[in-house]
Backbone:
């Protein structure tokens, strides 16, 4: 009887230890998270993807595309505003209407708050990615109402997924194309999207590929852009003249399962990267693999990255296309696609 009681006590002790250990692990991978929520619970669309955020003078605004399914003609750009601690009901900010006879899907919104000016929403319209055209709408009331759509010049797509960077009077927009292989380039506007210049492709997609760059600032002259790729790695390009010219693409030591990423430079000079730390499966075409877990890493130099948080880690789940900003109070805000059904919002207080 004593032996039986001993084993029961041992099992209880081991179970308690395992529970404590799991709790410690859970706490360690989610340390600093102060908000973990969905931006909406119910919406007039079954699927969503590709969220973006910006801080306005009246608070944070989020946007994404939603509809029956990515690529369907009913896919619009939706917007929600964070008022206090609650998000407003999603509303349509842009549609894919070209003219009375033609309507296509909308894709990849990017929000940009002009300092002291309007909130710009860049987005794309097209039947396929390779046929995208670039568009924008403007809000002069912090995302409540929006102007008539403005089509960008032919060959200009605007920031393709991640936010632009204002340098002097020039808005440097990270962009890319997919028509003849995945190629990275930058676009420039000195008047908030009225006139444009386009830079050269930074790769020939043979073999290094790249799309959807995120810009990091290292010092007064040096920038780095991290890109999604089909090579199984996050690829990068560097500028040493404040974004006027850029190096050819090169690989980093970070994995990429052909999934969108985002990265920013924090106010203290460190860099934050949100991505799926997943190595592509062997023989998988174009580097495709799972979009879980969803990870956050931090770096002092943009080269050596340390794990910071695990936002999601459900086998076979899709947690993808993150966007990250740091608000004026120092809080880091991240949003991302949650199983293509909802948009998740995470707020992190860093130490």
Residues:
């Amino acid at each position: 009887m004593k032996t039986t009681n001993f084993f029961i006590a041992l099992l209880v002790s081991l179970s308690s230890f395992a529970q404590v250990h799991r709790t410690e692990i859970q706490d360690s991978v989610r340390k600093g998270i102060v908000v973990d929520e969905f931006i909406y619970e119910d919406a007039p669309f079954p699927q969503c993807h590709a969220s973006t955020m910006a801080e306005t003078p009246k608070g944070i605004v989020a946007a994404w595309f939603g509809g029956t399914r990515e690529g369907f003609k009913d896919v619009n750009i939706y917007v929600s505003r964070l008022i206090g601690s609650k998000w407003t009901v999603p509303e349509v900010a842009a549609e894919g209407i070209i003219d009375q006879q033609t309507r296509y899907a909308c894709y990849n919104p990017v929000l940009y708050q002009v300092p002291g000016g309007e909130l710009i929403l860049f987005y794309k319209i097209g039947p396929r990615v390779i046929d995208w055209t670039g568009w924008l709408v403007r809000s002069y009331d912090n995302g409540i109402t929006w102007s008539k759509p403005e089509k960008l010049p032919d060959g200009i797509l605007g920031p393709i997924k991640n936010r632009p960077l204002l340098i002097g009077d020039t808005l440097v927009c990270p962009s890319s194309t997919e028509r003849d292989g995945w190629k990275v380039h930058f676009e420039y506007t000195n008047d908030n999207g009225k006139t444009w210049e386009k830079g050269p492709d930074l790769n020939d997609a043979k073999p290094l590929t790249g799309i959807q760059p995120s810009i990091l600032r290292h010092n007064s002259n040096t920038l780095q852009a991290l890109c999604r790729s089909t090579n199984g790695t996050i690829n990068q390009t560097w500028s040493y003249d404040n974004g006027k010219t850029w190096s050819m693409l090169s690989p980093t030591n970070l994995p990429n399962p052909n999934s969108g990423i985002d990265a920013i430079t924090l106010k203290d000079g460190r860099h934050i990267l949100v991505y799926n730390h997943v190595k592509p499966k062997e023989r998988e075409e174009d580097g495709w693999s799972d979009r879980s877990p969803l990870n956050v890493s931090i770096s002092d130099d943009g080269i050596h990255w340390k794990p910071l948080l695990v936002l999601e880690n459900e086998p076979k789940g899709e947690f993808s296309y993150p966007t990250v900003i740091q608000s004026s109070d120092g809080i880091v805000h991240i949003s991302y696609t949650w199983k293509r059904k909802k948009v998740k919002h995470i707020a992190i207080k860093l130490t």
